[in-house]
Specification:
There is one protein chain. The protein is an alpha/beta fold. Helices cover 32% and strands 20% of the residues. The strands form four sheets. Strands 2-1-3-4 form a four-stranded parallel beta sheet, with helices on both faces. A four-stranded mixed beta sheet has the order 7-8-9-13. A hairpin with a 2-residue loop joins strand 8 and strand 9. The protein is globular, with a radius of gyration of 25 Å. The chain starts with a helix and ends in a 26-residue tail after the last strand.
Length: 320
């Protein structure tokens, strides 16, 4: 994990300064100083992004590759030094997928989402821009970067809020909850002709029609699997925010169900999607296929490529 040593050094420098301020205050004569955490540490997708994070005055952390796994020991280690752990993934398909996996593993991580408009710009190689460095090249002000942090969201959607009387109440953060649901595949599909909206769950490239009760059941199961606190369970069970009215605020998903082109045809199995053309057969994992299909139209059989049953040979001697 790159950047950990620098994070520890920043933590020590910060507390040396705070300790000096504490001890110079006469009112703190009999009050021992306690170390304070840094405001934030930011997980980056690579050293290019880390340099930009450092330039804004934040401590970056990055692994050896985008697909590398952040183990529990390492996560707890960086949590010792910062109040909030941010993650800034690339916005290509791999980056989004890995960000969801990391967010579901550590629910307190705040995922920073780069804006979708970034991909409409091209780099010098003609490829869509996708990472923080690309964003900073187009929006170089510190305020633009910090605005990204302000709207970063964790998957932990239950929070303690302080009311006007100074009392803390356990509440559901609606935006956090909707963000979780959207990132794991829940959304709405709108009929182009009737404008009717239907709740759906997208898993890879497979689309399933669901109800608001299914979404609520997911939330109940989610908290029971991820937090050992009856108060949180009851909050989700009793809150009106887990009812249909809130689910209506899920985003509308634009899904292309076209399964063929002029020269290709897609076939869908429960383990793979198969692209058939005159040039050959290409296998796709459901999570990597950009062709969507209703769950009811997926074959129950598992696809396995077999050797040809026969071969065709031509004898030039008998050709006309």
């Amino acid at each position: 994990m790159n950047g950990l040593r620098e994070l520890k050094q920043a933590f020590m420098r910060y507390n040396e300064q705070k300790r000096a301020e504490h001890e110079s205050n006469p009112g703190n004569e009999n009050k021992p100083y306690r170390d304070q955490k840094l405001d934030a540490v930011i997980i980056c997708s690579g050293e290019r992004d880390a340099v930009n994070v450092q330039s804004f005055g934040y401590c970056p952390i990055w692994l050896n590759s985008e697909s590398a796994r952040l183990d529990v020991f390492s996560y707890k280690e960086i949590c010792k030094y910062a109040e909030i752990v941010y993650n800034i993934p690339d916005i290509d398909e791999t980056g989004k997928k890995k960000a969801v996996e990391l967010g579901l593993q550590y629910l307190d991580i705040h995922t920073v989402k780069l804006p979708d408009w970034l991909t409409t710009y091209r780099d010098l190689r003609g490829k869509p821009r996708k990472d923080l460095r690309d964003f900073v090249e187009l929006r170089e002000k510190r305020a633009d970067f910090e605005n990204l942090l302000k709207i970063a969201r964790p998957y932990k959607f239950w929070t303690w809020e302080t009311n006007n009387k100074g009392l803390k109440n356990l509440e559901i953060n609606t935006e956090y909850m909707l963000n979780l649901l959207s990132d794991v595949g829940f959304g709405k599909l709108q009929d182009r002709d009737t404008q009717k909206e239907t709740f759906v769950k997208v898993n890879g490239n497979i689309v399933k029609e669901i109800t608001s009760k299914d979404i609520r059941a997911f939330l109940v199961k989610f908290v029971r699997q991820n937090v050992a606190d009856i108060k949180v369970w009851n909050l989700v069970l009793n809150s009106s925010r887990t009812k249909t009215v809130t689910m209506d605020d899920l985003p509308i998903i634009d899904i292309d169900f076209t399964c063929n082109t002029l020269d290709t045809q897609y076939l869908f199995f429960n383990n793979k999607s198969v692209e058939v053309s005159g040039k050959g057969i290409t296998e796709h994992r459901p999570s990597d296929c950009n062709r969507y299909v209703w769950e009811s139209e997926v074959s129950e059989h598992r696809f396995k490529r077999l050797e040809p049953a026969f071969t065709i040979k031509y004898n030039e001697k008998y050709e006309a």
